[in-house]
Amino acid sequence: MAQVDPDPETVYLSGRTPLVASRHDQRLSYCLYVPAAHDPAGAPLPLVVLQHGTARTAMRYRDEYAEWAEQVGCVLLAPLYPGGIEVPGDLHNFKFLKFGELRFDLELLAIVDEVAERYNVTADRFYLHGFSGGGQFAHRFFLLHPDRLAGISIGAPGRITRLDDTRVWWLGTKDVAEIFGAPVDLAAMREVPVQLVVGAADVETWEINNPGGANWMDGAELAGRTRIERLRTLRRDYLDNGLTVRFDLVPGVAHSGSKIRPVAQAFLAALFRGEDWRQPQYPDHEA
């Protein structure tokens, strides 16, 4: 039997895909990992969004999670939000969701919908993991769109938005409805499994304590000095508002998304399998 060559129009649409421009806003793009388990006529696969940080390492995140995605049977989506949109040299645009007229939270939803048109994934509720700047984006996206999330893993955000209606955005949620058109839905947030994860040696502060910087607001320091302290503050806010939270403090790890990856993967895999996800792999004994 003659060998049948692969279709050049589709061969790059499975496995590790190239970066593709978003149809909704072509300044933004995304890449995927589509595992062998993907079957257009079969059961839809979980969709996991991996949100990059300041360095924009979207393809690296995708590649680091690819073997795991093949093992557990999920599709990976790694958006890429370039720096310098509208403001040359800016690196922080996506972290606070709204930048000028650009709404990065809505752009992610548009990308998810675009992916769902081509691939058989469960897109009405997807999983979201972000580390550092990606953790900033992730926990703020959670405030606005808990109804779209099946689970969220928030890794080491340098600046947090508290569930606090006495503080203005982005320190708190006082003016969320005015800025974004809808209030925070705490009841919906309580339905979402939450992991907070940070390295136990993530104590450098040079990047996250920069008064006068473009990504600074006075009052950010009140949440704590290190990423560990700020994530503990976020945990207290979540628990005080009735959310169920898993907190992993990974021993021997500094500020490294790659090194906390296995802990995030364990949390997500437990959700896929319907297992108890709440017990941390590395408990924080100062809780």
Annotation keywords:
287 residues; alpha/beta; two-stranded antiparallel sheet; 7 helices
Give a verbal description of the structure.
This protein is of the alpha/beta class and 287 residues long. The chain contains 7 helices and 11 strands. Strands 1, 2, 3, 4, 5, 8, 9, 10 and 11 form a 9-stranded mixed β-sheet that branches. Strand 10, helix 6 and strand 11 form a beta-alpha-beta unit. The chain starts with 14 loop residues before the first strand and ends in a 14-residue tail after the last helix.
Strand content: 15-25%
Look at the helices and sheets and give the structural class. Answer: alpha/beta
Characterize the main sheet. Answer: 9 strands, mixed
Average pLDDT, rounded to a whole number, is 96
User: Which regions contain 5 or more consecutive residues with pLDDT less than 50?
Assistant: none
| H/E topology pattern | EEEEHEEEHEHEHHEHEH
Q: Give the CA-CA distance, first to last residue.
A: 65 Å
Computed Rg: 19 Å
Number of strands: 11
The share of residues in helices is 25-40%
What is the count of DSSP helices, taking H or I runs of 4+ residues? 7
Shape: globular
Short characterization:
By secondary structure, this protein is an alpha/beta fold.
What order do the helices and strands come in, and which of them pair?
Blueprint (H helix, E strand, L loop, with lengths): L14 E2 L3 E2 L7 E6 L10 E7 L6 H15 L2 E6 L17 E2 L2 E2 H15 L2 E11 L1 H12 L4 E7 L20 H5 L5 H4 L4 E6 L27 H14 L4 E6 L6 H17 L14
Parallel strand pairs: 4-5, 4-8, 8-9, 9-10, 10-11
Antiparallel strand pairs: 1-3, 2-3, 3-5, 6-7
